[in-house]
Amino acid sequence: MSWLLLGILFVGGSIVFAIAGILVARKFMHKHVAEGHNEVLAPLFLTAGVLYAVLLAFMVIAMWEFYDAAKANTAQEASLLVPLYRQSMVMAPEKGEEMRHLLREYSESVVNGWERFRETGQGSARARMTVDKMVYVFSTLAPATKPRELVAAQFLTTFSDLMLARNKRLLHASESLSWIMWIAVIGGGLVTVGMSFVLFMDHVGPQLVMTSVLSAMIGLLLLLMVVLNKPFVGPLGIHPEPFEASLRLFDQIDDDFKKIASEAK
């Protein structure tokens, strides 16, 4: 189902529900409305509306924070590759070159496997294998000098942060809002809009307009929750641009170190 169709279903369906509910309720309720009808029901409707507004606002904010955390974590994972690439310049030439090749391979694997990652929530098998290769290469390092020993220790710390960010990204892709919470927000919306059906106005037009606007707003916020529920999927889906930016930085770092080496000769 396309996101446009889903949006029409949420917003349009909410409006249709509001209009149909009011027309049906007025048909059966018209003869039973007496003086003081709205004075009794309005406080109940306002109380239910406030309770649902608090719940809905909390859920939307929580979903947005979840999405923002996933986006920030993805950027952090890609950013950590750059200091690792620079630190590999201090390693023994053959080991440093091998490590830089693996860092490039990891970044390219993440970028190339992004579509599959979005669809399945599973990381690239090639990227996982590249991580294991980096661990193996690091285990074969034999620092010959104190600076290389310090760089190797810092490399391990940064590499650990990279793996932590990678695991968080995979968890963000696989997690979603509990079905119990979906029942609460959808059921609360139905109850809130449904309570407006029993209010009565002499002219049906204004009631239809106001209730439709209320329903459309609730439907729009529910649609926003659906979009944010999967941070790597949909119109706001997170893209692999941070990793592509890291790959471009790798090229710049190589050029810079070549210039530095040529000037030192």
- Span between termini: 62 Å
How much β-strand is present in the residues? under 5%
Sketch the topology as an H/E string, one letter per element.
Answer: HHHHHHHHH
| Major β-sheet profile | none
Structural key phrases:
single chain, 265 residues, mainly alpha, 9 helices, 82% helix
Could you explain the architecture of this structure?
By secondary structure, this protein is mostly helical. It has one domain. Helix content is 82%, strand content 0%. It has 9 helices and no strands. Helix 2 (37-87) packs antiparallel against helix 7. The longest helix has 51 residues, at 37-87.
Compose a concise summary of this entry.
By secondary structure, this protein is mostly helical. The protein has nine helices and no strands. It has helices spanning 3-29, 37-87, 93-112, 114-120, 125-139, 146-174, 179-195, 204-229, 241-264.
